[in-house]
């Protein structure tokens, strides 16, 4: 921010020196104006200048006023001094009145001297080239004499545009493409010259009529250009945002929803840096939109999620930010669009975009982005409910272990992947019917719950073990990358976890045992998941139950 304050001070000093020099020249050589210039004529012509100043076209962060046609008309009919005076007064009024109150004084203090100097150069140098080539003005104007001077006029405009682009890129760090700038300036000046030359035809009738004709022609061309550009841009933006909304609405799960938004955002709005904060259930994650990776919390997000910030924040130049925006960004980052807080239920989303281009964002961008984020919040909230329902449908309510449905899904996935050897361990509680008959089903349920807890403890100790309640008093384990010997060792760990420590439930002390059957598949296509499960079940009953219970049997050893 200090750099831009220094630029503002320097520009005011240069502007003051230039203004003082011009004032001294005016005192030494007072300008003379044609007698046809009256106060009424001046006010009318000044009104036309202001009309084009305020009704501008914005392209690539640059405002095109198309007042060049009126200024050129004034020069050709009344001279350079008169044209400069009206143009400079128009810029003064425009710079002070065209921005919202929050940034009006900042913009004026920073931009007015720069734009006034640019306007002075943009008018003076092409005019000097025109006059140096013998260009006629006033009553001596003829189209044939003005042809070559106008070529010199346009060449000077192109050169000035090129050097202006280099200057603003070097000292103001505005990302202007000089080829695009010269191209647009050619269009603007071409239309402006056409309107000025057509207006001169009517000069003999009345200067005001001629100026009006010139203004109407210029206004018509500008309006057609603006409507065409705005229409194409609006249609393109609407299509891109509609596609992004559709992508969100068909998302089912949380990760899918977040990935969909991160993937679409770079195609919706142009930005140099961008971050999005997603907060749900008091957990905040901030993503870099470019890399789509989580990052550390940015201090700026703390100020944007305050209770008093509920509307989009739009800044177009670095000088607009103020001291309340403190973030380490390169000096050439100008535009900022921040959506402080979009909420739905327990989901809260904030987003911040920065761009090198000045005035890259407007209220339309903010509205479209806000609507998209509202849909994102609702879909994200819905995805949490979907995940919850999905989890509940695959979780045993009593033991909180996965149920048989979840086990079958996981088993088929593991057997389809290259994670061999795979082992299936199927076991149940010995004489569990006696527990229910003696102590009641309530105690039986408590026993199953405690057994589920002990299995979960073992599962936490081994990342490659998936445990589930198979049904009733039966449980099952699926071991990934475990050999036959390792599978038997895990089975014995489970058996001792039941046998060595009695179950204390509802005031009863119960000593229980389990029987286990194992099957191991060494390589892919050796057996299917269902076949392996049947062999483990066979090992359980033939090698376990029929062998005295409280033991482990492997199908390969039967």
A few lines on this structure:
With 558 residues, this protein is of the alpha+beta class. The chain is built from 16 helices and 15 strands. It has helices spanning 2-28, 39-54, 68-78, 80-97, 101-132, 143-172, 178-200, 207-249, 254-268, 299-304, 363-393, 404-416, 432-439, 441-461, 484-499, 529-544; strands at 57-59, 62-64, 273-280, 283-288, 293-295, 313-315, 335-344, 347-355, 422-429, 465-471, 474-480, 503-505, 508-510, 514-521, 552-554.
Structural commentary:
This protein has 558 residues and is of the alpha+beta class. Helices cover 58% and strands 15% of the residues. The protein has helices at residues 2-28, 39-54, 68-78, 80-97, 101-132, 143-172, 178-200, 207-249, 254-268, 299-304, 363-393, 404-416, 432-439, 441-461, 484-499, 529-544; strands at 57-59, 62-64, 273-280, 283-288, 293-295, 313-315, 335-344, 347-355, 422-429, 465-471, 474-480, 503-505, 508-510, 514-521, 552-554. The model has no long low-confidence stretch (mean pLDDT 84).
